[in-house]
Sequence to fold (765 residues):
Amino acid sequence: MDKGNERITIGVLVGGIMDYFTIEICRGVAQMARTFDVDVVVLPGKYLNRDLSGNKELTYEYQFNTLFQYAKIPQIQGIIVAEGSIGCFANEEIMREMLSQYEGIPSVLIASRQEGYTTVNFDNRIGIREGMRYLIERVNCKKIGMLGGPLCNSDARERKEVYEQVLAEYGLPFEKKQYVGGSYERGCYQEAGRLLDDNPDLDAILCVNDDTALGLYEEMKRRGLVPGRDISVLGFDDTRLAARATPPLSSVKADPMELGNVALKMLLNKIEGRSVCDMELPTHFVRRGSIAKVKQKIVTEEAGKASELADAYFGDIYYRYRDGEQADVIYRLKDSFIRLVDLLEEAAEGEELLSNQAFRIEMAVDEYIASGAITYADMGVLIPNFQKIFHDVESSVSNIEKRCELKQLFANIYCKMLQAMDNRWGEDMEYKIREDHQTKLFVRETLLFEKGNDLSYAMMIGRLQWLGVKNAMVYIFPEIISHLARESFEIPDYLYLKAYLKDGVAISIPKLRQKVSRNMLFRNNVVDPDRRFFEVMLPLYSNENLYGVVLMDLTEKVFENGEFLVNQLSSAAKMIDLLKTNEKVQQKLEESLAVLKENNIALDNLSRIDAMTGILNRRGFMDAAQKMIDRKDGTVYVIYVDMNNLKIINDRYGHEEGDYSLKLIADILGKTVEGRGVAGRIGGDEFACALDYDKEDEGEAVLQEIYHQFYLHNQSSDKPYNVTVSAGTSKVDEESGLTLQHALTQADEGLYHVKMLRSKDVAKE
Fold:
């Protein structure tokens, strides 16, 4: 969708990159973004006003909230704000203050009741009423408690109100001690313990969300209590963890993916100037093992044949994927499910025995399982729905022998399902082992740099393909920003685009093109301005220090590894900065030593000579090379040379061998340019040459001569290691207009691409 000639870009403000609510909202937004061809950037802050005093590990997570400032960049035409997660610890005043900064930007709020804003919410009442009615009418619960959320949050308040209303409607007792407020988090053990201690006779507990319910599970386990046996437990949200809990958690199905889906449609209508009304999405009760079993025969909810109810059964089992990216897979799965149900019903209603049709049914079961029956199912409702199908089919069978066959047939189906589940668990374990290995490689290779230069940023993002990321950008602030908790944050006027990942290839940006206005961060001329994207922005920080931000494709693996990813990339950014600082200190130290020598040694040329190698030092080289450029009418070629693997040689063979290698490099370079130029050592293991050169091969002949000299030395040397270098070239002439410093920078960037191909193995075979 275009606004004028520009494709629309939407900002999505959420709380926590790995939060279930965030992930599902983003999936819903992504689905609609593809449909309407809009670009999206997700800004995952954290939870406003959250008390972190009891958790030192989370002390600096407030840095994530600086991302909310980027939603004000003019390139973003509208915003979706997941207020329900961002503000779950904040009161309305704090949220209104936060929202006020986006005045004038079209917006839609998710899970919010803020007056004056367009909102989309869950109807908390329907699903909670269904669940509580089931507990009261079917399970005969007489005393129901509630483990609630922070009452500054509108959803938490509304869920408490519905809970109290239903108790009143049924004339059930309610005392203040039956309700304990807490957070939306799993670590609510203290609150859960108080609820259990104060109400030892509870039949059931309603929890404000699934995370809280799973925290209650852990507290019950510590006390020897079993959900569904001792106390029925009902959650809210119906997360994937709910279905995988032991026992599977009954919950209120509230689809945040649909919230994201609807929110984007509403926002696009607002941007187009159309009138938009607030919306509420329905919720419904999902029963699983955490609610006590009703001791009565299982019957279908609706009268009718199994084939007529097949759509409803399928929707109940696979509701999470009805509109997802796996639509084609789910359509095929549904076809195989309906064929199986039809075949079971046809076989049951026919006159011949089931044994005569066993092969056809077995093939249909295998096809159904192979289509992803176990992979995509909510396992908490799969078997109960097949039990309903069994009773539907059985009702049409009067022959006792055939009924026995039918029971055996369904027993075989359950066995096949259990085998498929076992296979799936095995595959999951193998996947986890592979992921652990990839994680270790990622940790190692994102920190696999020796220098604090701009090329290291390209190495930092070079391994992001492991996460399915093909495109990324690294922006670094002009200076480190010290940002304390509860301080305001302003984006610098300019950031520096150090490197980007394009179609999986890491590219370092030349210094002259790095400076980008804060208003052009998402789309600019440095990276393809017409690119389409669904990206997430993550902060690069260490404690109170902010280094910059990284933008990257938002993939499923980024959702799974978001917190780890931020920590790892932030560590890399910090390491680069420390190396850069160290190199500056080292350079200043060397310069100080040179000055000291000047003060103590009368001969000026000694201050221009590198004490270790005997060739020019940085000062001497820069002066001599500049004089060449000043007096030369033709071309002066500049060569930037970097020793490979100095650290490995130092560590493995000792610093004396490292010094020997540096002297050797100086000797070879000095002889190569003798009579036609100058060579110097300009850093620890960095050298440079400047020479008169009139050939048209971009300096290739000189590079090959240098490489050949090292080859000859390594062939004849009795050292146990090879001494090698990487080099890049640039030229200074009237046409290029480059200064000596710019030429060195350009040559250094050319060196980087050679360096990436070097071998880390220095030992001779």
Observations:
- DSSP finds 22 helices and 24 strands in the chain.
- Residues 296-303 have pLDDT under 50 and may be disordered.
- Residues 400-445 form the longest helix (46 residues).
- The CA atoms of residues 684 and 741 lie 18 Å apart.
